[in-house]
Structures are given as C-alpha cells and as structure tokens.
Write a structure and sequence with these properties.
The protein has 20 helices and no strands. By secondary structure, it is mainly α. The protein has one domain. Helix 2 packs across helix 3 and helix 8 runs parallel beside helix 10.
Length: 478
C-alpha cells in the first residue's frame, strides 16, 4: 500500500471535475448538489466493494462465474463438445479431438504443437486456447437472452427503479434521466426506450446526461465478454465490473452536469416516470423473450465482430502508413535501433493516444513508476479507437506476465469498463436520434461532448478504485 497513490487518486477526482468544468457551456453554473451526492454515492459503493461488503462482492463474482460457465455450454456443443479446443471445458483436462486439432493446424501455425501431441507441455501453443469468436461472442448471445428473460419476468425493473429513486432523491436530477441512468446498468441504448414519451421535451442537459450514461457504463450482455478476458488473472472480475458499472452512473451525472449545466425546467423533475412497457400482456411469453433476446444478441455479436475486424484493420493500415513515412523521413533504422522516433513509429497510433491520455491516467493514481504508468496509459488510450476488447485482452496478458501490479490491474479494469469509444458513437447517437428524429441535429451535436464526459466518468471510477485500494491481492479473488 502506498498512501501517496491513494491521495493522488483522491486529488484525481477533483482534477477530473475541474477539467469537466473548464469545458462547461456555462462556467457560472456549478451543480454543487449533483457533485456532492454523485461523488458521495460513488464512495458508498467503494466502501461496500473494498471494505464492508468485500465478501458480498466475492459472492456475487462466484455467482456470476457460474453463469459465465453456463453460458459456454451452447458454444461447447456447437464447436466440438467437451474436448473442443475452441471452447475448452475448464473441468476437462484432455486435449482437443481430431476436428479441433485439424482446425488448429489449418488456421494456426502447423509447426506449433497442439495439446495432445506426444511432446512436452512446454511446447504447446498457449495463445490458441482462447479464440474470441468462439468463446466470448457466444456469451454475448446468451447474456442478451438472459437479460431479456429477466425483464419479461419483471425481475430487473424493480432494481432499476430502486436505483433511479436513489439517483433522483439525492442528486435532485429529473426522474427520466435517473431512470435512463439506472437502466444503463443492465442495458445500453435500450434504456432510452423506457422514457421515450419524455425525450422530445427534454432539456439539452438531460439529453447529454442520458448519452453520457450510455457511454460510461456497460450493458450486462457484454459483461461476460469482458469478464472472460480477465478471469484467469482476476477471478473476481465479474463482481467488480458490476460495481464499476454502478459506480460510473453517478460519475456520469456529475461530469455531464458540469459540461452542460441544467438551465431549464425538466418535466419529470421530482418524480420517477412509469414504464409504460412494463405491462406483461404487451410482451411475449418467457420463451419468446429468451429467444428474441438471443437473436438480438446475435446482431450484437456480429456487430462486435464486424467492428473489431474493421477498426483493427484500419489501425493496422494507419500504422503502416506512418511506418512508411518514418522510413522516408528518418531512413531505414539499423537493427537494434531503440531511438524514441523508431519506437514511436513502431506503433504510432497507440503511442499518440498513450501520450494524450498520460496526464489523465496519472490522475487515477494507478502508479508512480514510469513504465507501468505508460503501459496503463497505452491501454486506456487505445480503447478510443479499438473498443474495449483488445485493451482488456492486453491487460490480462500483462497481468499474467507480471508486468503490471495488482493496483494497476484493478484501476485499469475499472477505467476500461465503459463504451467510451468511437464504435459506440454511431450506436448511441443514432439510436437516440431514431427515437426523436425532430432533434437529430441537437443529439448529434451532443454526441462528442457525451463521449468526452463518459471518458472522464470512467476515469473517475478508476480514481475511486485507486482511492480504496490498500494493496490487498485478495480483492482480485486470488
């Protein structure tokens, strides 16, 4: 434990609020009640997660891990059964069957040993055990169906309303934006559907708060995806992702109200609107809800796969262009050249984003060691273009190799828990514009402000994790 880092995380909360205030549309208006209660609610959740209720978080993680394991049953059946190399059964120690071995030789390196070969286990390819398309994306489909079923059974709605009441009563924000923010703990842009009748007459500040909460939190359908990437090195990650998603919503309101202060009179101020779609007679039966949700999950999984293919391809293309420019300007670098220019142009886009996010990463109090701080800044920065998935994968690899400390793993995993990347911009702005086409231009103008606000909110959540971290590895579930 380093008290200086905890103090830095505390000061980082103030610093992030100050940065948001500098970009305010009206710096004369400071929403002190929202700031006080928003940060206070975050601290209450932090105390529960890292102090009083650590056993509760561990129990939640254990429960969610059971659900995560269950979510792989369908994928195991489709892609080779318990002996599949593509979707490995954690309780099955044998190597892959003939089909899995053939696929490994076809799409992988034919000269790298596959589990089951008559070779030493030291020669096995460690990276082929986890194939994103066959492991993570089926979990998105399962969780989407599960959440749809829980909504049909009216299990999630009371929880959403409970959070909404807390947000509305404490921060004194409108009931509609409180409801949308609370629903974002479980779903994405779908949260705006519950308050669709009020969207057209909402103030500019309310619309920004709703968009910010979409960017700042994660939908439960992708919780399994992120948890699966870190679970080997962070066994209790599922519970912490839930706490991060809850903790970020008050931060979203704090930052969005600093950026665009409330100057109007919200129509739902002082009360929580009723969800007109909650009548079970208007919805399909439970099985239809499960299948319908799974089909929506298929669309989401395909969208995620398409975005990753397109975005990572563009990143590689941009890096190739910069590399070509580097060779023309600097000249071909000799073997072993480790100059800063050469290192920068080796991965220019990620390095540029790492430089831009370095001051913000420092404010989280993640580390005082330069190399670790730089690595964390690279991970947080690359999310803007590459989505959360590659950074979470890299974070797990760094943690497994021992390159990142327990504190860094904890703080960065909290910061990355959000949809603050360009791939989500079109989804959230387009989705909200589709609900209120009359205000399409205004929603589009708010999009990048909300993306910036969501980024600051996730960084504030990282500060909270850093504030309450006392260097206890048990918080990771190890």
């Amino acid at each position: 434990m380093n008290p200086i880092l905890n103090l830095l995380s505390l000061l980082g909360i103030v610093g992030l609020c100050f940065i948001a205030w500098l970009g305010s549309e009206d710096r004369r208006i400071i929403p002190w009640k929202v700031i006080f209660w928003g940060i206070g609610l975050q601290m209450v959740v932090g105390l529960i997660v890292f102090g009083l209720g650590s056993n509760l978080v561990e129990g939640l993680s254990n429960f969610l891990n059971v659900v995560l394991d269950a979510s792989e049953a369908g994928a195991q059946f489709l892609f080779g059964g318990p002996a599949s190399m593509l979707v490995a059964d954690p309780n099955f120690a044998a190597g892959p069957g003939p089909a899995g071995r053939w696929i490994a030789r076809t799409v992988g390196n034919p000269y790298v040993a596959v589990a089951g070969d008559r070779l030493s286990t030291d020669n096995l390819n460690p990276g082929f055990a986890y194939v994103l398309a066959f492991r993570a994306l089926p979990q998105v489909i399962f969780f989407s169906g599960l959440v749809s079923l829980l909504y049909r059974l009216n299990i999630i709605q009371p929880v959403v309303k409970w959070f909404a009441v807390i947000f509305q009563k404490t921060m004194r924000i409108s009931g509609a934006e409180s409801m949308a923010g609370a629903a974002n703990i479980f779903v994405g842009i779908e949260s705006a559907i519950a308050i669709k009748p009020f969207l057209l007459d909402m103030t500019r500040s309310e619309l920004c708060a709703i968009l910010t909460s979409c960017f700042g939190s994660i939908a439960s359908s992708v919780l399994a995806l992120y948890a699966g990437l870190l679970r080997p090195t962070f066994p209790s990650i599922a519970g912490h992702l839930v706490s991060a998603s809850i903790m970020t919503i008050p931060a979203c309101f704090v930052i969005s109200k600093l950026l665009i202060p409330e100057t109007g009179e919200p129509k739902t101020l002082g009360h929580i609107p009723e969800d007109k779609e909650s009548d079970s007679s208007k919805r399909p039966n439970p099985m239809d809800s499960l299948i319908g949700g799974a089909l929506d999950g298929v669309k989401m999984a395909v969208g995620i796969a398409a975005a990753i293919i397109a975005i990572l391809g563009m990143v590689a293309l941009i890096n190739a262009v910069f590399s070509g420019i580097s060779n023309l300007v600097v000249g071909a670098s000799p073997a072993g050249d480790t100059s800063l220019v050469t290192e920068f142009f080796a991965n220019p886009l990620a390095n540029l984003l790492g430089m831009l996010f370095l001051p913000l990463t420092f404010l989280t109090g993640v580390s005082l060691e330069w190399q670790e701080l730089w690595t964390c800044s690279l991970l947080i920065g690359r999310r803007l273009f590459e989505t959360n998935i590659p950074p979470y994968q890299a974070l797990g690899a760094f943690a497994q190799s021992g390159e990142l400390s327990t504190r860094a793993l904890l703080v960065v995993s909290y910061v990355l828990c959000g949809f603050t990347h360009f791939a989500s911009y079109g989804i959230f702005v387009g989705g909200l514009s589709g609900l209120i086409p009359e205000r399409r231009n205004e929603v589009a103008s708010l999009g990048f402000k909300a993306l910036w606000a969501g980024t600051l909110a996730t960084l504030m959540t990282g500060c909270m994790a850093g504030l309450f971290d006392i260097g206890n590895a048990a918080v990771l579930g190890r």
